[in-house]
Amino acid sequence: MLNLFSTTIRLLIAFACGSLIGLERESKRGPAGLRTHILVCVGSALIMLISLYIYDIYEGKAAVDPGRIAAGVVTGIGFLGAGTIMRSSERVRGLTTAASIWVSAAIGLAVGCGYVSGALIVTVISYFALSVLKRIEDSQRRKKSE
To answer: Across-strand partners of 86?
Structure first.
């Protein structure tokens, strides 16, 4: 059963993970930055906690699938991410931000259900992909244009 301490810790971890990804997006002036990623990550964690809480309450009394609510988050975040994608005649912008919003939701779901190690590993990988690999991509593009 969830208690106040485990709930608080999970939501604070989701806040920290969402903050790290959001700070990177903020530094690149992405369409969704710090606050958006925090809200998506913490909100997803809370939704997963709600799923687990409902399961605990109704276990043995009714058929409850805690994954159903989480599946709704994945679908809903897809729509939110799609709203950050901009297409012009020359290029598409916002795909990385859309992906970072989606992964932030996944991290929140992981933290919410207690899979903190997975959430922390994906946070580090995501930050690496968004910051370090961006510099590598940029240097490769400069080399190709020379």
So the answer is: 93
